[in-house]
Design brief:
Elements (H helix, E strand, L loop, with lengths): L10 E5 L2 H11 L4 H14 L4 H4 L4 H6 L1 H7 L14 E4 L6 E2 L3 H9 L13 H15 L12 E5 L5 E9 L3 E5 L8 H8 L5 H7 L5 E5 L1 E7 L1 H14 L9 H12 L5 E7 L6 E3 L18 H5 L1 H9 L4 E3 L2 H7 L4 H8 L5 E9 L2 E10 L17 H27 L4 H16 L12 E15 L1 H31 L2 H19 L5 H19 L5 H12 L10 H29 L5 E7 L1 E8 L11 H25 L8 E8 L4 E6 L4 E4 L5 H9 L17 E6 L2 H16 L3 E8 L10 E7 L13 H11 L1
Parallel strand pairs: 1-7, 17-20
Antiparallel strand pairs: 2-3, 2-8, 4-5, 5-8, 6-7, 9-10, 9-13, 11-12, 12-13, 14-16, 14-17, 14-18, 15-16, 18-19, 20-22, 21-22
């Protein structure tokens, strides 16, 4: 015998009509003769079958009593409404139904012999939990809202999927516990409410068939096809799952459900970035376009004047309900009409996708039947257009990200001023199939003017060596104290050996710090001394305590003393971060003057390269005024960076000096992006002179002296031509007037290898008073500020 609810459930189901029979008994005792007679006759008919009152537990019994059940439920299923209502008797959330109306029978029959009616996306887990929630609400008085919409998806005779929302009337249900039931506390209920996903927990609190479900529910369906299809479209469009992509077949089926047109076809045409033409969608090779079928040209050739004005000018839907009639009444649109008719398009809707006043593309809905698509049902698109717009915008963004990824992988992180050039090349490898396997071209910008500057940390190598020496000295002193203490307690000869060797290393360290001293001492400590000390952790308690104290005093990452070096490294890092941040921030302002290439590097200080010229921004008119403006900006920027360091210096854990330098080069050069190095470099032998000067100038001396050309508290400007000196003296005069710069000195620079005749201006920086500074730094404030900005 096949029992009702073969699916695992907390219920043992008994289909009972007790409540209906009780109503009939009341009617039988009433004074209305014809109603009483009808009720008495029906009660007499079912009297031999007590299971109709007590409960039916198998499908076979339902089949046996099918006609009697139909009579019993006649008041609930009126014959006059059987061709209108979509109703049946059911068990909650189960797919078995009976006593169906004629309209429901017809819907199921049209779906085909192979169709099995199944609730959408409803497996064992939600089925079991929803039944448990019925018990919680009905028996325990909870108020759990578990009314998630549930649907049947049923194809009609034309194959269009229709979506029917399921509603249950549970007035004829009763629920009773059995001896298997688990009595729940409020804590149990709270636990269940917070653990929907834990099916084992629900089965523990509601064991299978531990409750009686007696009665039946009336299931009513209503056609929710449009709303459900729109919901499915939203889910499909908004999903980030790669399995839910903007696929033609999926979208087409959903639109067929919305419009109830079996042969409805969909297409999409994208606008080019300059809006001059339509093009095939880059994000889906299967996406068809009826407007572009067999051609890809500017908008007028693809659309025609009338449609162009409606779609692009007015940004409204363009609708043709009968293409043949449209051809007759609009002969000027002959090209478009014949183009559509050639594809058997008899009615159509073209809808522009607009995001922030930007045209993304055109959604195309077409049918081979005239009048099926028209100005009335075009309004259905209003419900889904926002989601279509967001989806297409997202796909365009994804395409942009793919292009960016190629640029990042094949080139480097590209500055916005030259990004367009890289994008042109990368775009070929994403949209042009023939170009995808070709090598990536090198990017060259010709006739650009270079500017170079730096703010360098003076004597950083000496300071770093001092920090290393301090840490290694402390390291050896701590170890010697510890080992001498251990030897006094344990009397092991091997300890004397380590003491002797550490004393020798200490002597070498005091004499001079060599290139390999740090690694030599670190290797000896980590590989020779520390393993022995760890062995002493198992010795007497006093020794163990001393050893543990020593290890706690070390840096946990390198297991060495790292105090002075840490201060130095952190100081260097803070200076670089602050200077780089300030320079980057000021660059945003400089880009507004005229787009130019900008890159900076953090070394022991911050260097920057600037390149400006017509080839960087070919859409704009370049003038030497912009070069002069950028040179003045660079000088002002270094003044501000020097002032910023002046005010942050007292808060730093290590005291360091900085020097500033500008290299002036008035001859335009070419720069080429080096694919192997992922960076720009000068192009050609002649231009290499600039790179030679740039790399050697900061370590050079004043000609005929041992004095470096750079000096703390001053900006050095290196040049080779007299007009460059004149130009920079003008800038200096302006900044002297603003009390930013002071006295000037002039000198020649010593000859460099292959480069002679360089001169320099060195100008004093006038630091602003601390109370005029933006920041009254403490070390902690500085660390916090830079951690946020970076």
């Amino acid at each position: 015998m096949k029992h009702i609810l073969d699916n695992l459930s907390p219920f043992k189901v008994k289909i009972s009509f007790a409540k209906v029979i009780e109503v009939l008994e009341e009617i039988a005792g009433s004074d209305v003769d014809y109603r009483a007679a009808y009720a008495k006759g029906l009660l007499k008919e079912i009297e031999p079958y007590p299971e109709l009152r007590d409960g039916i537990e198998s499908y076979q019994q339902i089949e046996k009593h099918y006609e009697r059940i139909k009579y019993l439920l006649a008041d609930l299923f009126p014959t006059a409404l059987t061709n209108n209502e979509i109703k049946a008797v059911a068990v909650p959330f189960d797919n078995y139904i009976f006593n169906t109306t004629e309209r429901l029978n017809k819907i199921i029959k049209e779906a085909g012999e192979d169709f099995d009616i199944m609730i959408r996306d409803f497996d064992e887990h939600p089925f079991y939990v929803m039944n448990c929630c019925i018990i919680l609400n009905a028996y325990y008085g909870c108020k759990i809202d578990f009314g998630t919409p549930i649907f049947y998806d049923i194809p009609n005779a034309d194959g269009v999927i229709k979506h029917y929302r399921i509603l249950y009337n549970a007035d004829f249900l009763e629920i009773f516990p059995t001896e298997k039931s688990v009595a729940l506390t409020q804590e149990d209920i709270n636990l269940l409410i917070d653990n929907y996903d834990d099916l084992a927990l629900w089965k523990e609190k509601f064991p299978p068939q531990s409750w009686i479900l007696k009665g039946f529910v009336i299931m009513t369906l209503y056609d929710n096809s449009v709303e459900s299809a729109i919901s499915n479209l939203k889910s499909n469009l908004l999903s980030n799952n790669q399995d839910s992509e903007f696929k033609k077949e999926t979208i087409e089926n959903i639109f067929r459900s919305i419009y109830r047109i079996p042969d409805l076809r969909t297409g999409f045409a994208a606008f080019s970035s300059d809006f001059s033409r339509l093009k095939k969608a880059d994000f889906d090779e299967e996406m068809h376009s009826f407007l572009l079928e067999g051609l890809e040209d500017d908008c007028r050739h693809a659309l025609g004047e009338c449609s162009l004005e409606t779609l692009i000018g007015q940004k409204k839907y363009f609708i043709i309900s009968d293409v043949k009639e449209f051809l007759i009444t609009n002969p000027e649109e002959k090209g478009l009409a014949e183009h559509l008719l050639a594809q058997n398009v008899q009615s159509c809707i073209f809808a522009p996708l607009v995001k922030d006043e930007k045209l993304l593309g055109i959604v195309e809905l077409v049918s081979s039947e005239p009048k099926l698509l028209n100005s009335i049902n075009a309004n259905k698109l209003d419900l889904v257009m926002p989601f279509l717009v967001d989806t297409i915008d997202r796909y365009f963004s994804d395409m942009q990200n793919q292009i960016d990824a190629i640029i990042q992988k094949e080139y480097t992180a590209i500055h916005p001023s030259v990004y367009w050039k890289f994008r042109e090349e990368a775009s070929l490898h994403t949209t042009d199939k023939n170009a995808r396997d070709l090598p990536f071209k090198e990017i060259v910008f010709k006739e650009v003017y270079p500017l170079y500057g730096q703010i360098d940390i003076k004597g950083s190598s000496v300071a770093r060596n001092e920090a290393i020496e301090k840490d290694l000295t402390v390291q050896i002193e701590r170890l010697l104290r510890l080992l001498r203490f251990v030897s006094d307690n344990l009397k092991l000869p091997v300890i004397y050996q380590n003491v002797f060797e550490l004393e020798d290393l200490e002597k070498q360290l005091k004499e001079s710090l060599k290139a390999d001293t740090e690694s030599l001492i670190q290797s000896y400590v980590l590989n020779e001394v520390h393993p022995m000390l760890r062995h002493f952790k198992d010795s007497n308690e006093v020794v163990r305590a001393k050893v543990e104290t020593y290890f706690k005093s070390l840096d946990p990452k390198i297991m060495m003393v790292y105090d002075a070096r840490k201060d130095f490294d952190q100081t260097l890092s803070l200076i670089n971060k602050k200077m780089a941040f300030l320079l980057d921030k000021k660059q945003e302002e400089a880009q507004s003057f005229f787009p130019h290439y900008y890159e900076r590097f953090k070394t022991d200080g911050v260097e920057h390269n600037l390149y400006i010229g017509a080839s960087i921004a070919p859409q704009l008119s370049f003038s030497h005024v912009y070069l002069s403006n950028l040179r003045l900006w660079q000088l002002q920027a270094l003044c501000e960076m020097e002032n910023e360091y002046y005010h942050m210096r007292p808060s730093l854990p290590y005291d360091l000096d900085v020097t500033s330098l500008i290299l002036v080069f008035s001859t335009p050069i070419s720069i080429r992006f080096r694919m192997d190095e992922k960076r720009f470099d000068v192009d050609g032998t002649y231009n290499a002179r600039y790179e030679v000067v740039k790399k050697r100038i900061d370590k050079s001396n004043i000609k005929g002296t041992e004095e470096r050309i750079t000096q703390k508290g001053k900006i050095t400007i290196v040049y080779s031509q007299h007009q460059e000196e004149v130009e920079y003296r003008r800038y200096i005069s302006l900044l002297q007037h603003k009390n930013k710069l002071g006295a000037i000195e002039t000198f020649e620079v010593e000859d460099l290898q292959g480069v002679t005749g360089l001169k320099a201006l060195r100008v004093e920086i006038l630091y602003s008073k601390s109370d005029e500074s933006e920041n009254g730094y403490t070390y902690q404030d500085l660390v916090k500020e830079l951690s946020i900005k970076n």
